[in-house]
Every structure is written in C-alpha cells, then in structure tokens.
Amino acid sequence: MRMKYSLTFSFLIFVLGIPIYATTWDEPWHDIVVKESDSFVFARIDSFDSRNGVNLTIIKNISGRQIIGRIRINDFYLLNFTSYSGDDEGFFHFSGAEEGYFFIKQKENGNYSIATPTAGFAVVRNGLVYATYRHSYHQALVPVDIYEKTMEAIFNNYHGLSYDISYIRNYISQHITRRPAGLTNSERDIFFLQHVALETIYHLRLSEYYSEILPFLVATLSFQIQVSAIRALAAYNTDQCKNELLRIINAPDRDTFVQVISVWTLSEFIPIELKSELIELEKNASNESNGFGGNLMDPRVGTYIPSVKVALQNLIEKL
Q1: Cα(275)–Cα(46) distance, rounded to whole angstroms?
Q2: What is the mean pLDDT of the chain?
C-alpha cells in the first residue's frame, strides 16, 4: 500500500489521548457527518468516561436544532465496525481538550451522539481548531473565526439553510488566488487556509472558481492540496473539466489516491458519453491497493479506498 500522510494525525493521538485500538471502523467522510447531524454547537468539555460518554455544557448553538444546558454524549450515529475486540478501553477520549465544536444527532432512544470516536467533533486549543473538512485522517489547524464561519456555511448548505455567501466568496478569493503552499513550517498556515477554501468550494458546490483551482491540480509540494482541488471541481460539469480529470486518471506518474478522487469527482457528472474511453482507461489502470496509510493500528484503517481500477469499474457500472 502506498503510504499517505494525514495533516495532523499525530495531534489526534497525542492531544486527545486516543489510544491504539484492536477495534476498527469505516470512518465516514465529513460531508456525511454533517448531513447526518442535527445540531452544530460549540461546547465546553466538562468531563468524560472512556466507556460511558462525554459531558458537555453548550456554550453556543451555531446552527440546526437548538440544544440548551448540559448534555451527555454516549452514542455514535455513523459507527460501522470493520473489526472488534472486547479488550478496548472505551471510545470516548478527550484528554487535554477543554472546548470544541460538535456535530450532534439525537437518536431515537433519546441519546445524544457524535459520528464516531474520531469524527463529529473538532477540539479547540490556543485559538486553533483541529478541523476536519474532508476526512478525519486529513485535518487542518484553523483559526476559530474562520472555522466557525466556513463550517456554519457548510452545515447550513447541507441542511437547506441560508449562509453568509459574501463572507465565503471573500475568503475563498483571498486564498486561492495565491500560489499553492506546501506543508513546510513557513507555509503551513497558508496551506491550511487554502485547504479550507478548496474544501468549502466542494461542499457548497460553488461554480465560479475554475481557473483559480487549476494551479492546485498540479501543485507538487503536497498531494493533499491536489485532492482538495480535484474535489472542488465537483460543480464544473463541463467538457473542459472532464478532460482535466481524465488526464489525471491516465497519467502514470500521478498518485493513485489522487487518481481515485478524480474518478469519484468525474462520477458526479454521470459521464455517459465517456463510457468507451473509461473502459479503455480501466484496462491499464493501477490495481495497487490504496488507502490513507499512516499507523496500521489506527482504528480508522477500516475506511475503504478502492484501487484506481476498481474505482473505474464502479463508475463504468453506473453508466
């Protein structure tokens, strides 16, 4: 398996104190987490018990169903196990975290829940949010004000609510008109802000930034920003965009994870007219196993990422 590098994976392990598990699960992507939640809140973490849950005091309802006062989260709404061990010490781990943002769902039994032990929340430390915009494997450190405004827009968009489009457009224009940044110490902050801008374009399906996105498709400093740029193309159902994605899928030197994301973006267009071309691409496509990489004992290793060949086969079957 080709190794992938999460943006702030080590922070999840050492800041939150999440242990290594024998139990694993299929970690949901962030759009699913947001869509399936009822409430987006900012809360104080009062206490937690690894087996029984976390106690929160709601500080601010940002959007969705209003929650007041103290609540206890003791369940998960998107936890799909891929392996299980009875030796685990529980799933709620918030050591060292005092405040955070939570995507909460109230289940039929009345319990409050987050998505998984590693998704559906974003803790805050020193004015920075340990934020997920794509997948919890690929987090970014984001200032509180930026996180709250962009994530409110994302939540509201998925729930059919209005949001501050002027702020969003100003933010995106400010950051994606700059040269693509890398993950070096000198550029890391810019990199995270560009990651947020591109992922926000994806979630909101904004369609006025095509030319600004193109330089990020070939940014060589990090495959991570290429992934965000490819996802941001989801609103551009044009021949030009489809051809750009086909070039990435067909390029022998491109990262296979990047190619799979390209196939997934292309599939959003239901490109029936490209079926014969896709069939030809599939014949020589990489069948190399794919995934997020990282620590093989990470509980999220159950998250499935297909090979490029399988991703193409899945797309062709839909056409």
Answers
A1: 54
A2: 91
pLDDT category at 1 given cuts 50, 70, 90 is: very low
How many degrees, rounded to 5, is the angle at CA 147 between CA 111 and CA 151? 55
Q: Is the pLDDT of residue 241 over 60?
A: yes
CB neighbours of residue 177 within 10 Å: 12
Q: Are 181 and 140 in contact, with CB atoms under 8 Å apart?
A: no
CB burial string 26-65: b at 16+ within 10 A, e below = ebbbbbebbebbbbbbbbebeebebeebbbbebeeebbbe
Q: What per-residue string of b and e applies to 144-167 under the rule 16 or more CB within 10 Å gives b?
A: bebbbbbbbbbbbbbeeeebeeee
Count of alpha carbons within 13 Å of 227, Cβ hemisphere only? Answer: 21
User: 223-232 vs 188-204: helix axis angle to the nearest 10?
Assistant: 20
Strands 39-49 and 99-106: antiparallel
Q: What are phi and psi of 75, to 5 degrees?
A: -155, 175
State pTM to two decimals.
0.93
* Rg of the chain over all Cα atoms, to the nearest angstrom: 20
Residues in the chain: 319
Q: Are strands 24-25 and 121-125 parallel, antiparallel or unpaired?
A: unpaired
